[in-house]
Design brief:
The chain is mainly alpha-helical. The chain has 3 helices and 2 strands. The protein is 44% helix and 5% strand.
Length: 77
């Protein structure tokens, strides 16, 4: 039986046992506040990346959103 190392959560600082299949990528525990902080950090990281920086900008994306809104007229209500 292998021993798994415990890690300190980046949000709350508590020790937790990361999920074995995801231990290389998991930095937050499973408490809802910490999961929310994990999502916020991931979104922040993605928005700062070259791929995410211009995802919602530019004329092509404006046309894409306008076409979607035209196809789904009652969605915003």
């Amino acid at each position: 039986m292998s021993r798994h190392r415990r890690r300190k959560c980046r949000q709350c600082g508590q020790l937790y046992a990361p999920y074995p299949r995801n231990r290389w990528h998991q930095h937050y525990c499973s408490v809802p506040v910490c999961r929310r902080a994990s999502k916020t950090a991931a979104q922040h990281h993605w928005r700062r990346s070259p791929k995410g920086r211009d995802y919602f900008r530019g004329s092509a994306n404006v046309l894409r959103v306008q076409a979607w809104r035209k196809a789904h007229p009652g969605y915003a209500r």
